[in-house]
Amino acid sequence: DGIGRLDARITGCRACPRLVAWREEVARTKRAAFADQAYWGRPVPGFGPHDASLLIVGLAPAAHGANRTGRMFTGDRSGEVLFRALYDLGLASRPDAVAADDGLTLHGVRLTSPVRCAPPANKPTPAERDTCRPWLVTELELLRPTLRSVVVLGAFGWQATLPALTAAGLSVPRPRPVFSHGTRVALADGPALYGCFHVSQRNTFTGRLTPAMLRAVLHAAATEAGL
Ligand code: SF4
Question: For residue 55, what is the DSSP state?
Answer without folding.
Answer: E
